[in-house]
DNA sequence: TTGTAAGCGTTATCAT
DNA sequence: ATGATAACGCTTACAA
């Protein structure tokens, strides 16, 4: 027995329209034909009473929430903007909504923000949720899409990734080949995601192909928090600067920090040290010098992920892994001419002009 | 009559623990004392069955969703990261979750993503939701906090703002006074928020105080979409560059674009043209040259907003308007020395050294 | 085409 | 301290 200051319910509308609640429901959900004239009355009654259905009740009855959750460890990277936007757009079109929450892997054990009890499905960023939980979700068939990572074991979660290895390999090769760099440093992202490891692998592969030695001293491991990136990078550069002519940063945020540090150190980019990043975030083109980087279709990643959860939710077939292609965007910071160039990974090695910027 | 592949319910737990559902509920919510030993059995039963309460049912019974919605027109600015993060942190501590959705003012008339039917309260970004809707929410006492704007009419919605006018005034005065700039351009944000207007007012006030003429030709109105900022700004600068020695940008994103455009135009910053922004986004310090700007406590804005909705939800007293102070951050782009300086608005006009960066 | 009534999973009132 | 049971607002099978 619960008492509440009543908001208007479907019964109020029904009474006002002189029909049963069932009919109103049917009209609302188009779940069965309703006489045109009856529909008019219902329509009007709803307007008059300012009715809006209580989603909790609907969810309880139907076991559908029309809500998808996105779980990430942090949402303060600029990087998340396009990602969320992409997801939101697609979900919105389909009348779903996006619920987001952060979650520290390990820490929030068994107390995740989302699950079958409050969402129809989730999108999981990188290694935010631990394997044990994923396995459980898999067992109960809870719709779940993985972002920037592969499923643990042989679980059949669909996942969305971008091409990392080949992109960074080509970028590094470009530094070697086109700009004659030999002592190339690599800066890991603060967290060892699969992405990050693949990028380093691409970097190493490029060195190998050109017979350059891999020097651990030129690699900054990601043992720092994102907020401390500036200090960590500054210290790292102080060590290697005298013996280094290029820096491959794990992502644009890091490249930005590198640029700042080099500026303060009075080092010219790209003359003395070339700098490249990954992502092609919105600021990359406006940096001084404009940043050579890899264009990752982050918004598309979000869109694809959203589409996949929706398919999962509807019981439709999904692709197991979606690997989105990336492009090299050659700007000034690697040593290229001022004009922006763009190179598709799948294309032959002849850069084509990038229209506009 | 609905049939579903049953997930475990509170009754299953009750049966397993040989108690009634009511007792399990009481144990779960600490709403009444439960014998220690009974608690043990319930605890164990829940674990064994992997029980987690269905939130929709709970929401239906209690009329509480433990969810707060944030409505904005777009969430792809880097700017939103800290904002969301701040809100999320506070809500999370209080076991609430954050639901986010975009909404185009005017377009989504009467079909908002959030409302009393699915959330306990909302945070509204700038003018995303139209006054009519706000008035309705106000009438029914729906918890709602406004961000970066004042309430329409004399409505008593709490709102959270940052100090815009004085900050931009001082920043502009700094350009005039410390760096002798006379022909200062102003670039509006793509959407005329209250923030934006206050910033322009600050700019004009500074000119007035120093007897400089206001020249409409030096002001770029925000009649462009964010994605087209680059072109709009480039065109604008092409017009005014010959007669302009400083640019006050409406925010850091715009300042970034200005920097990029000036670089391409071969203009030296700050020697030929000084550039300043607003927000002190994470990239500002790393730009070349480092950006002089106004530090806006965006994450704090989020935190305060979240706290206010929670107070509203709990029926506690709230501040009508929270005006958060901003600080000038003097870096190189205005013409100051390389070392970063910071100036509190409330302090006297003697810049103090900024610890670290 | 419409109405009746059961049921969704939880909380809360009233007993005991 | 615990148990029965109504109620939350909606959907849907079944009947008419």
Mean pLDDT of chain A: 90
CATH arch. level architecture of the largest domain in chain A: 3-Layer(aba) Sandwich
Oligomer: homodimer
Main beta sheet of chain A: 6 strands, parallel
CATH topology of the largest domain in chain A: Rossmann fold
**Estimated radius of gyration of chain A:** 26 Å
β-strand amount of chain A: 15-25%
Blueprint (SSEs and pairs):
The structure is a homodimer of 357-residue chains.
Chain A: H1 10-17, H2 21-29, H3 36-49, H4 55-62, E1 67-72, H5 80-93, E2 97-102, E3 121-125, H6 131-140, E4 144-147, E5 159-162, H7 165-177, E6 184-187, H8 194-209, E7 219-220, H9 229-240, E8 246-249, H10 252-264, E9 274-276, E10 293-295, H11 298-313, E11 321-324, E12 327-330, E13 341-344, E14 352-353
Parallel strand pairs in A: 1-2, 1-3, 3-4, 4-5, 5-11, 6-7, 6-8, 8-9
Antiparallel strand pairs in A: 10-12, 12-13, 13-14
Helix pairs in contact in A: 1-2, 1-3, 5-11, 7-8, 9-10
The structure holds a DNA duplex (16 and 16 nucleotides).
What does this structure look like?
The structure is a homodimer of 357-residue chains. Chain A is of the alpha/beta class. Chain A folds into 2 domains: 125 residues, Response regulator (Rossmann fold, 3-Layer(aba) Sandwich), CATH 3.40.50; 162 residues, Response regulator (Rossmann fold), CATH 3.40.50. In chain A, 37% of the residues lie in helices and 15% in strands. Chain A has 11 helices and 14 strands. In chain A, the strands form 3 sheets. In chain A, strands 2-1-3-4-5-11 form a 6-stranded parallel beta sheet, sandwiched between helices. In chain A, strands 7-6-8-9 form a 4-stranded parallel beta sheet, sandwiched between helices. Chain A has a 4-stranded antiparallel beta sheet with strand order 10-12-13-14, with helices on one face. In chain A, helix 1 packs across helix 3 and helix 9 packs across helix 10. The longest helix of chain A is centred in the middle third of the chain and has 16 residues. The radius of gyration of chain A is 26 Å and the shape is elongated. Strand 2 of chain A pairs antiparallel with strand 2 of chain B, so a sheet runs across the interface. The first copy, chain A, binds a DNA duplex (16 and 16 nucleotides) through helix 2 and helix 4.
């Amino acid at each position: 027995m619960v008492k509440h200051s009543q908001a208007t319910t479907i019964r109020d509308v029904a009474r006002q329209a002189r029909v049963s609640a069932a009919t109103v429901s049917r009209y609302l959900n188009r779940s069965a034909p309703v006489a045109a004239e009856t529909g008019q009355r219902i329509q009007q009654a709803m307007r008059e009473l300012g009715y809006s259905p209580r989603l909790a009740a609907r969810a309880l009855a139907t076991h559908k929430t029309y809500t998808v959750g996105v779980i990430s460890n942090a949402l303060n990277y600029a990087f998340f903007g396009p990602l969320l936007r992409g997801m939101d757009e697609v979900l919105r079109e389909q009348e779903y909504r996006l619920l987001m929450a952060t979650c520290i892997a390990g820490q929030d054990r068994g107390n995740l923000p989302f699950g079958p009890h409050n969402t129809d499905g989730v999108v999981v960023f990188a290694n935010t949720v631990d394997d044990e939980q994923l396995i459980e979700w898999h067992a109960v068939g809870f719709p779940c899409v993985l972002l920037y990572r592969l499923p643990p074991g042989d679980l059949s979660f669909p996942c969305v990734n971008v091409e990392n290895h080949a992109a960074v390999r080509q970028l590094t090769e470009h530094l070697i080949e086109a700009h004659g760099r030999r002592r190339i440093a690599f800066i890991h992202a603060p967290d060892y995601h699969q992405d990050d490891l693949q990028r380093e692998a691409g970097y190493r592969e490029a060195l190998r192909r050109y017979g350059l030695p891999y020097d651990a001293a030129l690699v900054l491991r990601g043992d720092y928090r994102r907020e401390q990136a500036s200090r960590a990078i500054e210290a790292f550069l102080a060590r290697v600067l005298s013996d280094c002519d290029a820096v491959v940063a794990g992502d644009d945020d890091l490249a930005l920090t590198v640029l700042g540090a080099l500026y303060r150190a009075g080092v010219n980019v790209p003359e003395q040290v070339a700098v490249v990043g990954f992502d092609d975030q919105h600021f990359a083109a406006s940096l001084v010098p404009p940043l050579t980087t890899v264009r990752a279709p982050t918004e598309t990643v979000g869109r694809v992920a959203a589409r996949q959860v929706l398919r999962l939710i509807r019981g439709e077939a999904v692709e197991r892994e979606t690997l989105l292609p990336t492009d090299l965007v050659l700007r000034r910071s690697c040593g290229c001419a001022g004009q922006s160039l763009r190179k598709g990974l799948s294309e032959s090695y002849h850069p084509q002009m990038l229209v506009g910027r």
